[in-house]
Amino acid sequence: MSKSLAIRGDRLDVDFEAIREAARRIEPCIHRTPVLTSRYFNELLGAEVYFKCENFQRTGAFKIRGACNAVLSLDDEQASRGVVTHSSGNHGQAMALAAKMRGIKATVVMPRNAMAVKLAAVEGYGAQVVLCDPGEVSRQAAADEVIRQTNATLIHSYNDPHIVAGQATACLELIEEAGPLDLILAPLGGGGLLSGTALAAKVMCPDALVIGVEPAGADDALRSLEAGRILPSVSPRTIADGLLMPLGDLTFKIIRKQVSAVVIVDDDAIIDAMRRVWQRMKVVIEPSAATAAAALVQARMETSHKRIGVIFSGGNVDLDKLPW
């Protein structure tokens, strides 16, 4: 059986063993984060809601799952050349820590407008930071230059089968703990978390609807799915800074086949949901993580009498710039 997820032509090969193998590989390196419930949200929605709290994960976000799986999957020759990635913050932190744990060099290309707290964290984990202009094209060009100079191995933040398999382990743990679910919601940016969530749910909870939630100011995924082809992101603007990336060809194909729907929430709804979670659950989440809760609060889908899983993707907030 293949030990990675693969897309071949129009056929999606889902290897659930790759997700199980990723879970075994990364178990010593990550936290098994808690699944919390909230009477407030249960009563508000008329449902049973289970929140997978990746804000309590190492580096403060789910990204360490995929980063560890990818870095630990490298052979010794690849690892010896170091790794490079580009990221607005959370994936960069995860790659820096994963590389540190394996004892190899990491270079992280970050946009100049990245949150200061995330840039400091990347450097704190020991990675070299290369700053570039905002935008996918600039980030990739800077990463290509690092590869030209160092021959480092590129690990994309989401468009990589080992990354997707690693991110899938968050949903695997959620279903293991919460049991069968009717709805599963995850934030949608580049699509690594949502793709992994859908692949895990397909096997473990085949009747569940998997919903991706995207900010209105960065809705290229919904537009791409409607058009049937990847459309570039045009000047995305949203408080959910972790969801600015466009879909990759791998995540696009998985989401087209496995995700039930994509819903849109605006920044006001994201801020409102984030504040509700902070106040009612006493849990610190970042705006990107609040998108799924925002979709529920905004009644973008039927929730009554359903068992619902929500993935809180991270909690890396600049406390000097709270939106209230």
Which key terms come to mind for this protein?
alpha/beta; six-stranded mixed sheet; four-stranded parallel sheet; Rossmann fold; 2 domains; disordered N terminus
From the N-terminal CA to the C-terminal CA, the straight-line distance is: 51 Å
CATH class of the largest domain: Alpha Beta
**Can you tell me the number of structural domains?**
2
Strand content: 15-25%
Anisotropy-based shape: globular
CATH architecture of the largest domain, by name, is 3-Layer(aba) Sandwich
**Main sheet: strand order:** 3-4-12-9-10-11
* Integer-rounded radius of gyration: 18 Å
Poorly predicted regions are 1-12
Task: Note the total helix count.
Answer: 13
Helix content percent band: 40-55%
What name does CATH use for the topology of the largest domain?
Rossmann fold
Number of strands: 12
Characterize the biggest β-sheet: 6 strands, mixed
Query: SSE order, as H and E?
Result: EEHEHEHHEHEHEHEHEHEHHEHHE
Global mean pLDDT? 92
Class based on secondary structure composition and strand pairing = alpha/beta
